[in-house]
Amino acid sequence: MQEILAAAKHSTQITRQLLGLARRQTIAPRAISLNLAIESMLTMLQRLLGENLELAWIPGNDIWLINIDPAQLDRILANLCVNARDAITDIGKVTIETRNFEFDEAYCNDHAGYIPGKYVMLAVSDNGHGMNDETINQIYEPFFTTKEAGRGTGLGLAIIYGIVQQNAGFINVYSEAKKGTTFRLYLPRFAGEAQIETKKDKDAPLRGQGETILVVEDDTSILKMIRLLLESLDYRVLAAESPNAALRLVKEHNSEIHLLITDVIMPEMNGKILSNQLQELCPSLKCLYMSGYTA
Predict the structure, then answer these.
(1) DSSP single-letter state for residue 79
(2) Of 9, 121, 135, 257, which has the fewest CB atoms closer than 10 Å, so is most exposed?
(3) Residue 120: is it exposed, middle or buried by C-beta count within 10 angstroms (0-12/13-18/19+)?
């Protein structure tokens, strides 16, 4: 029962994030202190890294506010820490750092990848195996991964890149083989007045208007919970426990399906191959990927 409840909670969070991304809008952006947000996650992040890795926290002084959905920030930190962990063999160190930066036109003209403005930097560094230039050029591509089969989906950094772009920021990465990697994310300074968040605004669900969603998930408990959640939000749900079952459903209902939500790693075929085959049957079908893997 506890496993089912945990799956329900996890699938609820995933589905709400996916629905927000499907509408190309941030779920709940608000002015927050990056330092306070990170400090509230340090215990969880240390558990994520494990006992063999040291987590160092270097907070900047008088850090400006940023405007972002806290759930997106949590996703960024978790994915970056998982990538850092997986880059380290045995004992190592992961460092999280914040700092204010202001870049003018002259500086940006001399430094590729920088955009003028005032930013709060979030840096996550590791002393792992590092990356070569070829890998760096591909790291933000969906489904690109250097991890062994079953350990990652290749979506983690692509999701981070999308979140940062959505919030008008940019990313730089520095890496050297056998020495480690540093990701530096620059998020714009929030210049307005911080708004008091009400419980009503925070908890307001994204409701549908009877649209049909096809959900493909080989874990039956997660599939059931996602279906119940979506139906409670006024969506019509077609549920499939396997890619082949999904193909049969699309052949029967292709003109009625508005969105595909699919697990990435499944028996028979992965989510990417499945979506490609389904879109051949229904070219207008939109797709969102989900995964139990963090990165």
Answers:
(1) H
(2) 9
(3) buried
- Average pLDDT along the chain, 295 residues, taken 10 residues at a time: 54 52 60 94 89 94 94 90 88 95 92 90 92 70 51 62 90 89 95 57 64 90 84 88 90 81 87 89 87 58
Helix (H/G/I), strand (E/B), else coil: 111 = coil
pLDDT at 87: 86
Check: CB of residue 128 under 8 Å from CB of residue 92.
Answer: yes
Structural contact between residues 130 and 92, judged by C-beta atoms closer than 8 angstroms: no
- What pTM value is reported for the model? 0.58
Residue from 176, 152, 156, 175 nearest 164 by CA = 156
> What's the distance, CA 244 to chain centroid?
27
Query: What pLDDT is recorded for position 169?
Result: 93
Instruction: For residue 254, give both structure tokens.
Output: 């292709």
What structural domains does the chain harbor?
1-188 (3.30.565.10), 212-290 (3.40.50.2300)
DSSP state at residue 189: B
Cα of first residue to Cα of last residue in the chain, in angstroms, is 27
Give the closest residue to 260 by CA, choosing from 213, 292, 227, 208: 213
Cα-only R_g, the chain:
20
Q: Which residue has the tokens 């968040």?
A: 197
Pairing type for strands 257-263 and 212-216 reads parallel
Distance separating alpha carbons of residues 67 and 195, to the nearest angstrom: 10
Opening angle at CA 9, ends 149 and 224, nearest 5 = 80
For residues 180 and 159, give the distance between their C-alpha atoms in angstroms, rounded to a whole number: 22
Residue 98 pairs with which residues in a beta bridge? 122
